[in-house]
């Protein structure tokens, strides 16, 4: 049965601030829900299993991001292409892009499932994961990657929906997944005492459900981007276009994630309490980072549609609107996180040493999130024109190369974990300056 919808909105006419804001809100809420069920794993594990298990789940984040980074780039590339064809009212190419994107997601998901399950232990050993944490980390990650194909398919489907201006659907399905995940966490961890295995299985099931719901909607919706399972295949010219746009973002995500793995390795050297405290705060950190990325995604879609329609002045105005929203949000949430740092961290663990490590991380992160907001806001804007290489280069230099050099050359001079924490705002500031210079002086608005 088909679904008629008025949820799909092109942003080529009307109030720019209103359109970006109301498109961003479902993205933000959706990403916060996704972060919520990831955080629920850590909270429930930390309270019902222990600090070592919390360290295992928390420290897995950087490795998960590393292994799924390329698929995230592919979904960004597909979203840009779909939004541009929608803006140009080219139904045939919208259909080709949508079906090619889903085929790419399926194949990437299978590759990541196999690769993640095989490579988990060797990489964890290279990350200097302590022996008391290693067993739980391997169990959690292998089970997580057993279901990662559902995560990849959902993200691609959500990218298609967001490109069409239908971000509310992504929010709805993530809401369902979040509720199911938290329920299953409590059932499997507290009820059946399955430990970190229960957390991973709960995540897999919730991602499966959100992926199925998104695909079913795409099959039933009456719109240019409606999906037919029989048509899902790789269109050669569209694969090339999606890779051209998405590959730089995928490489960027992978290399930045690799640098974060190195940073996590440095944290691991300070013991299980440091791992648990840093891991707990990184879950809280996600409630700031994910909305920053949501505003960036909204800017990419807005620019993609308006650039495709040839409305360059709207693109330029959209930059300032996006930056204002990024800065206001990050300053507000940074203040709130600092104010309520103690009760927030104690949700994960009552261990004083774990809480103290988390609060120390907050000291260096929270006041400076606006730097990251400006960096990603401008990167998302440029990316919407299909020019993904310049943002990739800038993010690689600032958030990867700079961090690697810091870990190798400067961190040993500190002699404490504070040298790891201060790296983040310094790299954000460096990237922001480079991105401002490119946006100001670059020729990204020219075809």
Descriptive tags:
17 helices, mainly alpha, 447 residues, 0% strand
Structure report:
By secondary structure, the protein is mainly α. It has one domain (16-441). It has helices spanning 16-48, 51-59, 61-87, 91-126, 131-146, 148-163, 167-191, 195-220, 236-268, 272-308, 312-339, 341-346, 352-365, 369-383, 389-414, 418-421, 423-441. Helix 1 packs antiparallel against helix 8 (195-220) and helix 5 packs parallel to helix 8. It is globular. The protein starts with 15 loop residues before the first helix and ends in a 6-residue tail after the last helix. The mean pLDDT is 90.
Condensed summary:
By secondary structure, the chain is an all-alpha fold. 83% of the residues lie in helices and 0% in strands.
Q: Termini separation (Å)? A: 41 Å
Strand portion, in percent?
under 5%
Q: Can you give the mean pLDDT?
A: 90
Query: Radius of gyration, Cα only, in angstroms?
Result: 21 Å
Low-confidence stretches: none
Order of helices and strands: HHHHHHHHHHHHHHHHH
- Biggest beta sheet attributes: none
Count of domain modules: 1
